Amino acid sequence: xxxxxxxxxxxxxxxxxxxxxxxxxxxxxxxxxxxxxxxxxxxxxxxxxxxxxxxxxxxxxxxxxxxxxxxxxxxxxxxxxxxxxxxxxxxxxxxxxxxxxxxxxxxxxxxxxxxxxxxxxxxxxxxxxxxxxxxxxxxxxxxxxxxxxxxxxxxxxxxxxxxxxxxxxxxxxxxxxxxxxxxxxxxxxxxxxxxxxxxxxxxxxxxxxxxxxxxxxxxxxxxxxxxxxxxxxxxxxxxxxxxxxxxxxxxxxxxxxxxxxxxxxxxxxxxxxxxxxxxxxxxxxxxxxxxxxxxx
Length: 296
What we know:
It contains 12 helices and no strands. The protein is mainly alpha-helical. The chain is globular.
C-alpha cells in the first residue's frame, strides 16, 4: 500500500509541475521570461520562507555560504533559466521530453565528478538516452531549432543542482534549500531584464491568475513530491516521474495545438526507457550492496 500511495503522490506531483509549465507558457505571450522568473521566484520564496519559519528554521545563517549550497543555487539559476526559456520559446512537449534526460545527466555527473562507480550497462543507457535527446533536437537537420538548446541548458543546470544536493549537510533542511532556490531566481530575472533592455509590465487580470496558479501548483507539487519520496520503495516510485512527460504531451496537444512528430516521440520514448533502466539498475545495485554489508 505504501508503494501505491507513493506512486499516486508522484503522479500527482508531476501533474502539478506540468500545469505549472502550462501557466508559464501561457504567460510567455505577454510577459518577458525575466519577469516570469521574478514573480515565480518571489512567490515561491515567500511561501517557503513562511513554511520554514513555521518549522523554526533559520534562513539567514552561515549555511548560505556552504560551497555545496552555493553550487546548488548556481545550478538552480542555470537550470531554471534554461527550462523556463525553453518552455516560452519551444513546444512544451519537446522541452519537457528533453528535460526528462536529467536523471541520466545526474548519473553521468556522479561518475565524472563524484567518483561514483558506474558499470557499462548504465554507461550504455546514458549514451542511448543522449541519442534520444539528439533525435528531438536534430542538430544540423531541417527541423533543428536552436531554442531547444535552452532545454539542454536546463538539464545541465538541474543536474548540477541535484549533484550538489548530495554534498549538502543534513543539518540544512529542504525548506531552507527551497527558499534559497526560489530567492536566487529573483535577481536572475532582474539581470535578464537588464541585459535584454526590457522593463516590467503590469500583468492583466488573466495573467495575474496564471501567476497565482503557477505559484500554487508549483509549491503544492513540490510538497507532494517530497511526500512521495518518503513513502515506499523508491525503485517503484521514482519511474513515475516520467508521467510528467505524458501530461506535457496532452497539454501540448490539447491546450497549445502542438503535433509532436515521429522523431520527437521516438526520442522521448528512448529517454524514458533509458532513464527507467538506469533507476532500476541503481536500485538493484544499492540493494545488493546493503545485503553484503556485515551486521553488527
